[in-house]
Amino acid sequence: MTTQSRRVQLQENLNRTREAIAAACVDAGRSPDSVRLIAVTKTFPASDAAALVELGQTDLGENRDQEAHPKAVDLAARGLEPVWHFVGQLQRNKARSVASYADWVHSVDRITLASALDAAATAHGRNLNALIQVSLDGDVSRGGVLVADLEGLAERIADAPSIHLKGVMAVAPIGWEPAKAFALLAECSETVKRTDPGAVEISAGMSGDYQAAIAAGATMVRLGRNVLGERESMA
Ligand SMILES: *Cc1c(COP(=O)(O)O)cnc(C)c1O
């Protein structure tokens, strides 16, 4: 595919996705601009990410530092500075790298990781927006803090100088009704808001379940396939 035809395709995908998000908002009785689209560019080349930014898509997401960091450097070299969202499971030893380019980390799920990100952001002279990833079914192998431990983690992040608590994130557990998953996440959001009333963001919804997430109050949806097309292999 030529660069130009790929760009046209991405533009069409973006338009269609934005319209679908706005329609889901209206269905839910919400303002059509109350949900932020994060285009998840994982497994797709930096040229696609650059094209999306040039088409006006400001928020991009990635789930692996090994891929995200060079992509962020590549775009910066083109003079493009999207808002980068790190959405994947994160090892503490990657905190320093992620804090060098990410604006948001959606997957803060333990105190040791929060401390590492805070120290790294301070060292880089940057601030990070943090979402607490919640394990809705208690299977922490897929990332996320247990619901029972959410409040303690929120309190620790609220005290950190360089990471700012902004809300919660979850992935709907395999085999769960999305509506049930996102209703539980909305309860988790209320818990976090008791610690910090300003932490109102809810990152929920992927290409297969974003309408249910918007109906349950999501403020950010993380869409890969809807915007970029099918991935050749699962990342
Ligand atoms: C890949 C990924 C997405 C996007 O998934 P799609 O099904 O392509 O929309 C969203 N969130 C996370 C955490 C991901 O890893």
UniProtKB/TrEMBL annotation:
The keyword S-adenosyl-L-methionine does not apply. The keyword Nucleotide-binding does not apply. The modification N6-(pyridoxal phosphate)lysine is found at residue 42. Keywords: Pyridoxal phosphate. SUPFAM superfamilies: PLP-binding barrel (SSF51419). InterPro entries: Ala_racemase_N, PLP-binding_barrel, PyrdxlP_homeostasis. Residues 34-229 form the Alanine racemase N-terminal domain. Pyridoxal 5'-phosphate (PLP)-binding protein, which is involved in PLP homeostasis. PANTHER family: PROLINE SYNTHETASE CO-TRANSCRIBED BACTERIAL HOMOLOG PROTEIN, PYRIDOXAL PHOSPHATE HOMEOSTASIS PROTEIN. Belongs to the pyridoxal phosphate-binding protein YggS/PROSC family. NCBIfam families: YggS family pyridoxal phosphate-dependent enzyme. This is Pyridoxal phosphate homeostasis protein.
